[in-house]
Amino acid sequence: MKNATFNYSTTPCPVCDSLSGKETINTYTVSEAAAHFCPPTRDQDRNQRLLHCIRRLWKADESKFLRCLDCGFGFGHPYVGGDEEFYSILHEQKGYPGWKWDFDYARNKINASSGSGKLLDVGAGEGQFLVRMKENFECFALEGSETTRNELKSKGITVFADVTEAVEQYPGKFDYVTVFQVLEHLSDFRDLLSACKRLLKPGGNIILTVPDCDAMILQEIVTGCADMPPNHINKWTPNSLKIALNEAGFKTSTAIRQPDSYANITGALHLKLIHDATRKNTLASQVYKLRDKRVRVPFLALLAIPALLKMAFSFSKLRKGGSFAISGIA
Ligand SMILES: [Zn+2]
Fold first, then answer.
1. E strands, the chain, where?
2. 272: which of 46, 97, 223, 249 fits an S-S bond (Cβ 3.0–4.6 Å)?
3. How far is the CA of 243 from the centre of ligand 1 (A)?
4. Given a cut of 70, is residue 1 above it in pLDDT?
């Protein structure tokens, strides 16, 4: 397959539609992307399936990440997110995270206002947020994975497979819609946001969290670990997310940044080790071959020492929270 030639000057910004200035943040080849999600040294078969899947999605051997100089939004080009096949391969090893900052932010915000009614969580995972909200809310989930949907149902949560189904059954019925760390994955974010507007009662609230564009760019420079498409194809800034929410008909609040914490450095360290493991003949790539976690973890702890020293100059920046939250009124 030959490399497609992209014409940036005719590529509109997906958020503000501007055709003018864009900078290239990064370029990734299909094999770099496949190795990022699963290095061939760890699982050759899975790496090859990812390789074919990503090439099919990109219809090219590489993808660029561009940034709109007008609104600050960063986006993958070609502008295509992961599909069902991509995520089914990706999720063979990945679990859902536990309680996180995003949930605390939303819960405090919801409890500070009415604190009851109908609540929908978009991309609900295994329902970590909803099960903690069930006491005061009638809880609904939108979840793409069938296995996870069954798990949510077993927890007494009403589940939709897609947003169209939700809009057909409950138009204008929700008091709150939460969208945690979803919008960085979607090329059709406009459809999702306008569907959320239709789902909410007039005056209802949408609460979103996303990774912060500048934090992701910094993290990639310091750790070497890419914020890789087609998993993440959007890098949001507070300004660009406000534009998208306003366009969907929401009145927006001021964005709130995730608090600084030394725990954020641990996350960056983990990414650095993952990145080292994607390169052949590194110690990290050998350690990640160890299947038994009880053996692997002590070796990783040893590798963490030189990795930490390499990142030492950036500690103050890496302490900064990597996400921000924003809310909107329908
Ligand atoms: Zn723009």
1. 22-29, 62-68, 74-77, 117-122, 137-142, 158-160, 174-180, 200-211, 234-235, 251-252, 256-257, 323-329
2. 223
3. 9
4. no
Tokens of 13: 């910004």
pLDDT at 94: 57
Task: Give the single-character DSSP code of 298.
Answer: H
- What radius of gyration do the chain's Cα atoms show? 20
Q: How far is the CA of 202 from the centre of ligand 1 (A)?
A: 28
CA 149 / ligand 1 centre spacing (Å): 35
Q: In the chain, what are the domains?
A: 8-90 (no CATH), 101-226+235-260+323-329 (3.40.50.150), 264-318 (no CATH)
Q: What is the pLDDT of residue 286?
A: 78
> What's the CA-to-centroid distance between 12 and ligand 1, angstroms?
8
Pairing type for strands 174-180 and 158-160 reads: unpaired
Above pLDDT 70, what percent of the chain?
95
117 burial type by CB count under 10 A (0-12 exposed, 13-18 middle, 19+ buried)? middle
> Separation of 324 CA from ligand 1 center, angstroms?
19
Q: What is the pTM of this model?
A: 0.87
* HEC secondary structure over 79-143: CCCCCHHHHHHHCCCCCCCCCCHHHHHHHHHHHHCCCCEEEEEECCCCCHHHHHHCCCEEEEEEC
- Residue 58 C-alpha to ligand 1 middle, in angstroms? 22
How does pLDDT run across 165-220, given as a tens digit for each residue?
Answer: 999 999 999 999 999 999 999 999 999 999 999 999 999 999 999 999 999 998 89
- Quick check: helix, strand or coil at residue 77? strand
Q: List pLDDT tens digits, range 252-269.
A: 999 999 988 877 877 777
Ligand 1 centroid – CA 73 distance (Å): 5
Distance 136 CA to ligand 1 centre (A): 39
- Give the confidence band of 301 by pLDDT, cuts at 50, 70, 90: confident
